[in-house]
Amino acid sequence: MKKLLFASLMILAISTSFAQGLQSPEQYLGYKIGSRYTRHYKIVEYFRAVAQAKPEMVKLEKYGETNEGRELMLAFIASPENMQKLDAIRNNNLRLAGMGNDKTSASTESAPAIVWLSYNVHGNETSSSEAALLTLYALVDPNNAQTKEWLKNTIVVIDPCMNPDGRDRYVNWFNSMVGKNYNTDAAAREHAEPWPGGRTNHYNFDLNRDWAWQTQIETQQRIKKYNQWMPQVHVDFHEQGINEPYYFAPAADPFHEVITQWQKDFQVMIGKNNANYFDKNGWLFFTKERFDLLYPSYGDTYPIYNGAIGMTFEQGGGPRGGLGVINEDGDTLTMLDRATHHYTTGLSTIETASRNRKKLIEEFKKYFEDGRDGKVGEYKTYVLTSRDQNKIKAVTKLLAQNGIEYGTISNKSFRGFNYTTGKEDNYTDEGFHIAVSAYQPKAVLAKVLLEPKTIVTDSNTYDITAWSVPYSYGVSGYATKEKLEISSLKNTTAVTEVNSAYGVLIPYQSLNAAKILTHLLKNGIKVRFAEKPFTYNGKNFDRGTLIILKTSNPSGWNRIANEACITFNVQATPVETGFMDKGADFGSPDIKVISSELKVAMLTGEQVSSGSAGEVWHFFERELDYPITLINATDLGRASLKNYQVLILPDGNYRTLNDKTVSDKLKDFVRTGGKLIAVDNAVSMMAAGDWGIKQKDDKSEDKSEYANVKKYADREAQSLSSTLPGAIYKLELDNTHPLGFGYPDYYFTLKQDAGVYEFLKNGWNVGVLKKDAYVAGFAGNKIKAKVKDGVVFGVQNMGGGSVVYFAEDPLFRDFWENGKLIFCNAVFLVGQ
């Protein structure tokens, strides 16, 4: 009897401890939300504590780690009834989208709406993660009758911090700057975050531009989970300037044409419910301005193109907000204010989704049915082809990451829009191809990523307006209005080892070949390349072909070459003599040697665009796996450059280039055999000096007497006529120059401003703009006539070295795949 009584008391004690174990954020952390910043590990600990206290309502899932080893985590919150069948709900939701792995029919009757809330994608927009703590507690608080009702109809997914590395970078800095009491004076140092800031991830990438492209490890791991759930509603929480009130949906024009009326209508419903709460509290807000729905790689547009109601919510604050700041209206904006506003809109969104569960589910199901029925867009099949299978594989990787189906076609006798010529042409297969049908669940996303021309009205856009995969990935494409029969893609032929006592030849026509090159150089292998085409044993080899010979190389060179070719999927050819059928023999001056001691440095830090520096850094470390030294631009005057052969100047605002001593030092570096690679605005700043490149004058300016007589209300539209927010242009490319090796005689670039540079008089104009070079995207009517007759990619010889000019960024956000090889050419081939 005593044992039974003891057991009963123990059970009662345990159950009581669980009930008492649920703590509010303030109780758990020991401070009020908004009074100090919560480090990322504490956010994770609180979520774990809540999940332990309420296991019947909360399930946590670690979905990955950041570059710096911080945990990426999702929390699933549901009613106890729905939590017991969480996986069944997920599978049914996939069936609603036509993505289920079984043939069971999807149920709409009792299916809950899935609401996914994403916080802190920009690390220095910190209030949202604090709001996530409040939101989690409100959803599981046993005394909150409202959330209990809402959870009957919804599953809530919370990602409390999408960018832990950036958040902790900001929080750790702020905590080291703030005094005993925070200072609300906007001039105080705690409101002036230093370079590179906490906005971006470890590699200085903006993760809110990476949803579709998935170049970053955080995004890659998150999108896997997103595509396993496919929510009906997604909110991405942000912050903007301290003088801005709160922004929430509905979004601004332009809307992409594929966005449905239902998606627009539900954004209005969300906005009205949010407005109801804000009005009651006297909080200011705005809607329908600034934040459009076009570029597909945002946290609002990517969900939109995946059938959800995707939205951005923006709270005033950001890195200048600190724990409190006085804005231009004389009001004190506190962290508590900011977190409370995000907390309110998050719960308001769940409420609206719960009340409209049935309609959300029905429209979600219809969205994907329309895709499978081929009702999306005029083009019914997209066919992409290339002579290089690795370029096609790069595209299939992107498609697979996004859940887009693809295959192969047997009927190659069709006509379609030719992306290269811009005209209707007969299809020409270049050796390898894939086909994407518009009859599939992800038809909308496929159209958005693959369509030749995005329809963009003459309106202000928040980001670039062109990104089509065939252009950005450097493959030929055809879009046809014909529905072609597509079958499963067959496995490609595996690369085989080749053995030779003399040497091997490696074709140079894709980024994979450049990865082989860097692998060989790192392993001490001396690599040669051909400057002109040649023929060996009846087979033609193009410019840029890599030549690895026994001569000058250590034992094991053949094994290392085979390992590299197999790893990077490029078939080598054995060669047994240096005597060629046609073209230069291997002892000819036309065969150049790449030094295995080639060392690369890059300017970084203050004066440098953190995003541009991050692209290069990430590219070298994560893709090329080749060492690069980062030198602070402010240290350039005293840094020794004698140990480097290549110095990269990413996009930036280089005050140091105005220093004659520093400028002369860089010129001496080049003249004595160094190579300088300048990107984007670095080129503009060099053009302002005496480097040999000059920006063209704008002679199209209106000189009439009434040129400055303009209507104030038309100021935005008038300014748009002279803007270029990111459009695709076709360059004529000199592929006989090492900078153009591996390319056809054209290159598609993403042009982001109207700047045009004069043709180099003492150098090589490798990539040039000619008349009618515009391809796709928005360009103001004054811009189209102006952007022509200039150099975009150029090489200037200077003494024993050279300067490479990239007036447009070939590594743009690391998703412009077609530019990566030309950047490698600049680093490893030019000037050899």
Description of the molecule:
With 832 residues, this protein is an alpha/beta fold. It contains 24 helices and 34 strands. Strands 25, 26, 27, 28, 29, 30, 31, 32, 33 and 34 form a ten-stranded mixed β-sheet that branches. Strands 1-2-4-3-5-10 form a six-stranded mixed β-sheet. Strands 15-14-17-13-16 form a five-stranded antiparallel β-sheet. α6 crosses α12 (335-355) and α17 (511-522) runs antiparallel to α18. The chain is globular, with a radius of gyration of 29 Å.
Number of strands: 34
What class would the helix/strand composition place it in? alpha/beta
Instruction: Tell me, briefly, the overall form.
Output: globular
Distance between the termini: 91 Å
Tally of helical segments: 24
Q: Helicity range of the residues? A: 25-40%
Low-confidence stretches: 1-19
Give a quick account of the main beta sheet: strands, pairing sense, barrel closure.
10 strands, mixed
> Beta-sheet strand percentage?
15-25%
- The mean pLDDT is 93
Secondary structure elements and pairings:
Elements: H1 2-21, H2 25-29, H3 40-53, E1 58-65, E2 71-77, H4 80-83, H5 86-96, E3 113-118, H6 127-140, H7 145-150, E4 154-159, H8 164-177, H9 217-229, E5 233-240, E6 246-247, E7 252-255, H10 261-281, E8 285-286, E9 292-293, H11 301-304, E10 309-316, E11 324-326, E12 332-334, H12 335-355, H13 357-372, E13 381-386, H14 389-401, E14 415-418, E15 423-426, E16 432-437, H15 443-450, H16 469-473, E17 476-480, E18 503-506, H17 511-522, E19 527-530, E20 534-536, E21 539-541, E22 546-549, H18 557-567, E23 573-575, E24 591-594, E25 600-604, H19 610-624, E26 629-632, E27 646-649, H20 660-671, E28 675-679, H21 681-687, H22 715-720, E29 727-733, E30 746-751, E31 764-769, E32 774-776, H23 781-784, E33 790-798, E34 801-806, H24 820-829
Parallel strand pairs: 3-4, 3-5, 5-10, 6-8, 7-9, 25-26, 25-27, 27-28, 28-34
Antiparallel strand pairs: 1-2, 2-4, 11-12, 13-16, 13-17, 14-15, 14-17, 18-22, 18-23, 19-22, 19-24, 20-21, 29-30, 29-31, 29-32, 31-33, 33-34
